[in-house]
Design goal:
Helices cover 52% and strands 8% of the residues. With 455 residues, the chain is α+β, with helices and mostly antiparallel strands. The protein folds into 4 domains: 139 residues, Beta Polymerase, domain 2 (2-Layer Sandwich), CATH 3.30.460.10; 87 residues, Hydrophobic Seed Protein (Orthogonal Bundle), CATH 1.10.110.30; 125 residues, no CATH class; 56 residues. The strands form 3 sheets. Strands 1-9-8-2-3-5-4 form a 7-stranded mixed sheet, sandwiched between helices. The chain has a two-stranded antiparallel sheet with strand order 6-7. Strands 10-11 form a two-stranded parallel sheet. Strand 6 and strand 7 form a beta hairpin. Helix 13 packs antiparallel against helix 14, helix 14 packs across helix 17 and helix 16 packs antiparallel against helix 17. It starts with 5 loop residues before the first strand and ends with a helix. Bound molecules: adenosine-5'-triphosphate and magnesium ion (MG). Magnesium ion binds next to loops.
Length: 455
């Protein structure tokens, strides 16, 4: 396949009607970017992006119900029957709209090529221009199809200039090279190494987007982190991880703490990128606690580092908290000798909502260490015991047979922090002995405590 070749494409109906609708009013419209690349690779594109000569207001006017919110001239067209919107972007050069006062076909043709020229890599800088329903021509001014066949990732034009324009391309290069198993063209690779330092200027939001695509992609994400390290990007983007290089591991598998962390990440499901992050970051504290001559407290130090890192990447609060809690709790040492009360205290410390994640993290941690689960007393046993305990016994002050109002009434103490402390103490007692969870028994206990400690 090369520039100008005719190519038959089976379009989803909504995409076909957007292209046809624009052609009907005399505008040029083409498929561009990743979807053309995916089609040439024989894959069904996830998103179909359209570029057009029509200005945004014309696009929005043609397709009722479309939304047009951003300043870049991208209109999201909602066509009946389409699950998600189709992004239609007016041809642009360097972020500005083309001057369309003298629109003619030649100029439009040029505009499409200008639009492609501002894209990142040759394989992402191709278009499919329809000529008749289902048949169009490949517009490939930079040799993307040839590079794709050769397994080569290459910047459009001068790689130094392109990386200077937008440092996110450094990370995108890594993501694509790994996802499509491509070599990076030598000139592009040299430029990436030269510009690696500029990745420090990238916003957390944009980096998070790429990171999530690496974590949820079809290839083990450790490969992308390995390539980032090789290209000098890892210490710039995630110095906390780079610091794990060379930190020794007393594990059955070879490698250092970074190798171990990457393996743990890979062992967790791509469908849950937050859990994969917990795997990646669970031993972050080992670099700093090693400097003190031990790994003691690495889970606490690591949780703080992991939370700060995720804040830098602008992850949502809930996900930061989830990862922080997982890292903080990952060092539990279960043995078959644990009493039922110990199991209940463990559940209370971890939180019922986090149990499944914590067991998944530990299983990945163990796998990444080369530990095999014992037949008895292992993770599966603890999971079964926590499951039974959660179903059977109260683990939360809200499940006690008394509440704050009852305590306040019966003991003649005003509601407030003292009542809260009494409830916590009662729960501790019930965790030790669930049979105490009855109103008379709890009130007797509380009365006893209040009489010996009237404050
Ligand atoms: P994916 O299949 O992962 O979505 P994609 O190629 O569609 O890959 P997007 O981030 O969705 O990637 O971007 C769509 C297109 O926009 C790209 O194919 C590329 O042409 C262009 N593009 C996106 N980001 C950049 C960038 N930072 N610099 C230059 N061009 C970009
Ligand atoms: Mg895309």
């Amino acid at each position: 396949m090369r520039d100008g070749d005719r190519l038959r494409v089976t379009l989803p109906q909504p995409v076909a009607s957007v292209l046809a609708g624009l052609a009907e009013v005399g505008e040029e419209a083409a498929l561009v970017g990743g979807c053309v690349r995916d089609l040439l690779r024989g894959e069904r594109p996830a998103d179909w992006d359209v570029a057009t000569s029509a200005p945004p207001e014309v696009v929005a006017g043609l397709f009722p119900g479309s939304t047009w919110q951003n300043p870049f001239g991208t209109v999201t067209v909602l066509v009946p029957g389409g699950e998600r919107g189709i992004e239609v972007t007016t041809y642009r050069i360097e972020g500005r709209y083309r001057d369309r006062r003298r629109p003619d076909h030649v100029r439009w043709g040029r505009s499409l090529i200008d639009d492609l020229a501002r894209r990142d890599f040759t394989m992402n800088a191709m278009a499919w221009l329809p000529e008749e329903p289902g048949i169009g021509r490949l517009v490939d001014p930079f040799g993307g199809a040839g590079d794709l066949e050769a397994g080569l990732l290459r910047a459009v034009g001068d790689p130094d200039a392109r990386l200077e324009e937008d440092a996110l391309r450094l990370v995108r290069a890594v993501r694509f090279a790994i996802r499509f198993e491509q070599r990076i063209d030598p000139a592009t690779e040299i430029a990436i190494r030269r510009h690696a330092g500029s990745a420090s200027t990238l916003s957390g939001e944009r980096l998070r987007g790429e990171l999530l695509r690496i974590l949820t992609g079809p290839v083990a994400p450790s490969r992308a982190f390995g390539l980032m390290e090789e290209l000098g990007l890892l210490p710039v983007l995630v110095p906390e991880l780079a610091a794990l290089r060379g930190v020794p591991q007393a594990k059955n598998l070879a490698g250092d703490a970074l190798d171990h962390s990457l393996r743990a990440m890979d062992a967790l499901p791509a469908s849950d990128p937050t859990l994969r992050l917990a795997g990646l970051l669970h031993d972050l504290g080992k670099a700093t606690t090693l400097a003190d001559g031990h790994f003691i407290g690495h889970e606490t130090a690591g949780a703080d580092l992991a939370e700060a890192l995720l804040r830098r990447f602008r992850f949502p609060r809930g996900e930061i908290a989830r990862v922080g809690r997982l890292v903080r709790q990952h060092m539990f040492a279960y043995g078959g000798e644990w009493t039922d009360a110990a199991v209940r205290r463990f559940i209370r410390r971890v939180g019922v909502d986090l149990l499944d994640d914590l067991f998944a993290l530990r299983a990945a941690d163990d796998l990444a260490s080369g530990f095999t689960q014992p037949a008895e007393g292992g993770l599966a046993e603890l999971a079964a015991r926590t499951f039974a305990a959660v179903a059977a016994d109260p683990l939360d002050t809200r499940q006690l047979a008394v509440d704050g109002h009852i305590l306040a009434d019966e003991l003649g103490i005003p509601p407030g922090p003292r009542i809260g402390r009494l409830l916590s103490r009662l729960l501790e007692a019930v965790l030790e002995d669930p049979s105490l969870n009855q109103r008379p028994a709890l009130l007797a206990l509380a009365r006893d405590w209040v009489s010996t400690d009237p404050a």
